[in-house]
Write a structure and sequence with these properties.
By secondary structure, the chain is an all-alpha fold. It has 10 helices and no strands. The chain is 81% helix and 0% strand.
Length: 194
Amino acid sequence: MKLFEPLYDRVMQWSRHRHAPRYLATLSFAESSFFPVPPDVMLAPMAAARPRAAWRLAALTTIFSVLGGLLGYLIGWAAFEWIGPWLERWGDGAELAQAEAWFAVWGVWVVLIAGFSPIPYKLFTVTAGALSMALIPFVIASLIGRGLRFFLVALVMAWAGPRAEQHLRPYMERIGWAGVVVLLGAMVIVLLME
């Protein structure tokens, strides 16, 4: 059963669409507050297809991701008592508790690290709001963490250029399943560290 090749083909079609930057901005905004798919899946092929626009695309992704993070912060600040049980039902309860514990120890640094890492950033935006973290440090840490991540993705893919697509596609199933294994391994490590 092929799962990742058809997904890759769909993302490549989206990345070439004339409204692709709008889709990327929308995905970046949504992922930071409530949507589970990271914007890297659109940013990477778009930067590879349009190397000269890679920096602009990374900036667009960063800005809308931080704006979405502000929505996540607002959700946590205004509605955490209502949204908290939903997050637990969706299976994010353990990650949410871990995020709260990390905030207690490392404060604003957690936002910067979460912004750069593959850990679901939305958990940290909602938690930052629920804990009433200072807004300016939250925004600065988000800009730095998200910016580093998205500009790195854009740089690597712009360097690889359009030729990356022909080299990646034959390996998409392996790459996709390896990503799943890495994500599961990271989750196990986080759970064992509790």
